[in-house]
Amino acid sequence: MELDDALIRVGIPRDLVKVLGVESRSDSQAGAFTRAFLNNNMRQDSRNDAKMLLAHKAVILDYCRPKKDKSKRKSRKAKGLNARQKRAMKVFHLKPEHQRYELFLPLHELWRQYVIDLCNGLSATCSPQFVQQKLLKADFHGAILTVVRSKCPSYVGATGILIQEFKHVFKIITKEDQLKGVGDG
Fold first, then answer.
1. Which of 4, 16, 24, 90 could share a disulfide with 11, CB 3.0–4.6 Å?
2. Which strands make up the sheet holding 159-165, listed edge to edge?
3. How distant is the alpha carbon of residue 57 from its chain centre?
4. What mean pLDDT is predicted for residues 32-55?
């Protein structure tokens, strides 16, 4: 046995045998395993001269990528509805019988828990910019909002739970069970 073979086939230390739960194999068993492993994993063209390759240079093992299931590839994700279809189906329309303030109070409680969880990650030493970024990225569905300033004076003073948010419009439900669309401009 050469020096290189002796280093490769060093036995596992006794203290590690107990920890790992494995045993060292005898030289003949280890050699047989190595030859079988190489024969199974070597390139087809170089299997015949495995002994010569092992003696002179590194061995390149075969790697087979797992084949992708073609049935999964053919199934496409269902496309969503476009804006015209959503309007036609009245996806964002809230029926008058569902426009009641007390129906949205549980949503407000969920939002409060969300904000409490969000603020637990903040400390008193956080910079104002960090806090501002957290609040800008927060979801406000369920928050009680009050319009303080607006170009349209009829919006000022409106208070309610935010139930829908569009590109330039917030829809809030007031305590008087009125659904109001408030422009964010």
1. 24
2. 144-146, 159-165, 169-173, 179-183
3. 44
4. 66
Residue that has been written with the tokens 């309007």 in this structure:
87
Which parts of the chain fold into alpha helices (H)? 3-8, 14-20, 27-41, 50-56, 70-74, 83-89, 105-120, 128-137
Q: Enumerate residues 6+ apart whose C-beta is below 8 A from 178.
A: 99, 160
What pLDDT sits at residue 129?
Answer: 83
pLDDT of res. 1? 45
CA-to-CA dists, residue 51 to 9, 57, 174, angstroms? 17, 10, 84
pTM listed for this prediction: 0.52
Q: What is the mean pLDDT of the chain?
A: 78
In degrees rounded to 5, what are phi and psi of residue 156?
-65, 130
- pLDDT score recorded for residue 159: 93
